[in-house]
């Protein structure tokens, strides 16, 4: 039978071990639908249901935890090696469940609501995002880092983006205005209004969005409307990171000031059309293009 001293030593060691054992606390964050999502412990298997969500999870320092993506999730390069479960509008829910995610990152207006609801009904925590301001991009990274337990890396990246945008704001605060048309799609012809994050890039760089007052976030317009607005600069993405063919259409309208002054500029679409930290690079390029237009006055 153990003596009292020996017994107290064992009990003390056991208590010390319990005290030193890592305590995993519940993590919670409120998504962009206003829903609070709580996990018993930081996520370890994440499904990202849009290319932008994939980039944001990587930006939050949790890329190694991503087990499922959707088509066109091509950045960073490591994301191309992650299993795809379809497109953002048509997911293979059975395949997604096989990958056993413990957190799903949804896209508020991009993923079909019925599919997100089906995932929630199956017991998966769904955190829906749609950042529409520069600050919201940083805040989204911070929330994802909280849910993934990667706060150190995620919060640092969020602050890097925040400070980079602030520098551009200071640089272009008093820039001469440039009337701008941004083409987000060709058939049907589509642009953005001032409430869209791309619209905020235009404003950031001292541009004036010629369709900024339209009600819809991504309104359909006509070629005649663009001619009538007569922008001084036209910027377009295109289908692909190096595909400038959308600009060729505007080259056939020499009466537009942007065409007459050769202010038809290509912007790689993923740099401004995904609400991710790469928007800082896209904004710098966008601002440079408007500087080129100013230099031609």
TrEMBL record:
Domain Fe/B12 periplasmic-binding: residue ranges: 45-297
Keyword Signal assigned: yes
UniProt cross-references to InterPro entries, sorted A to Z: ABC_Transporter_SBP, ABC_transptr_periplasmic_BD, Vit_B12_bind_prot
Signal peptide positions on this chain: 1-25
Keyword set, alphabetical order: Signal
Superkingdom of this protein's organism: Bacteria
Annotated TM spans: none
Protein name: Cobalamin-binding protein
Organism: Marinobacter azerbaijanicus
